[in-house]
Specification:
With 438 residues, the protein is an alpha+beta fold. It has 11 helices and 25 strands. Helix 8 crosses helix 9. 37% of the residues are buried.
Length: 438
Amino acid sequence: MKTWFRVKKGEETGYRILVHPGLIKGFECSVNTKVTVRFGLQTCEVKVIPSKKISIGKMIMSGDVIHKLMLPLIPSYEIVYRDNEIQIGPIIGIVAAKKIEKLEEKVQKLGRYVRKYHKVNGAIIAFSNEGIDFDKKLVFGYLYDPFEKRWIKGIYPYPAAIFKKTSLNKELHHHFEKIIGNCIFNSSTFNKWEMYSWFQNASELIDYLPETKMLKQIADVEYMMEQFGSVYIKPIKGMQGKKIAKIEKYKEGLRVQYIAEDTKKDYFFNDLVDAKEFLQATFREGKFIIQQPLNLRFNDSIIDFRVIMVKDRRGKWKNYGMMGRNGVDGQIVSNRHRGGKVEQAYITLEKVFPEQESEYMKEMDWLARKAAHAIENCGFHFGKLGIDIGIDKDGRMWLIEINHRNPNDYVASFAGDRTLVNKIRLANMRYAKKLAGF
């Protein structure tokens, strides 16, 4: 059984809770005997007293119980009976900032996560990497008030589940994980080289991976150039298409197209020996990968696809949308930050592979699901992933990258679906609710 209610402070002393009989109907606990009540990490023994004078949407707690449970009275709560305990919640934490000084600013941007609060309920607490009391298990942060639609600054108890909008430092991550278990997502980060190394052992994915090597010396570039005639160099931790280069052989020499920050520049060299100084100065050994080039250029535009994978309220991966990304003419990446255009995937496929549109939509869905499961099999815990997929001129599909560090929800808005952002963020909160036990 599960329902929702508000908690009010009563005049009674001692450890007593007054509720309507319907609120605890079906619970395996005897009336007027002591039972355990839990709110997150806090528990206490209370006497539950049924009373028809109390409305079913209300619970009256003594001040002693409220103090012991550290239970804020602002939210509406749900109740479940599990493992011989009456559990009140959920209590969900959102890591919204690294620094306290940035927390208030970041909290104001969480509106879409609480827009459908009635489908989540409970105490939703935004906090940062700072202001955490390890001994008392308290956090300084902001509690969402669903009735006034504002965030209330204060000191609150540890959450039962944590959604990371920004990273937790390793010490904090291990600390919370030790206390609340595997209830933290998106849990960790990995780089491009780690992903390709792990997926080499996934039999269903290996044929979708472009050949990739770690850049350790110029000889590695030479080896890949001999095989493919051109190569991509990418940072192992890169984002938004920055610090990417494409090296191509021409009869008259070597062309290097390089995106440093905001603009692409072209450099010309006689050969790799001539380019050595530039490459060594630009690409630090061990920080970049060299990758087989994929022929994803259609009408002089790089085209690839983004599949948005999100955990639903049951904890199952669900495809929330597939987008086609059309790069600017002459660019070496498709990213919107580089001027690319985003549209629904079927529209892009109708332009480049009209006869195979349905077939490719199904294959991309399958590949994205396999990639999501594979990365979690490596020991990670995610609730949202952006899977980047390419289809080359010959119709072969490739797994390009997995965006896991808070991938951009707004990509769907750029493709015309303005409701999907809200759906994704509600799904994130409902998954956090599941992890919190509700």
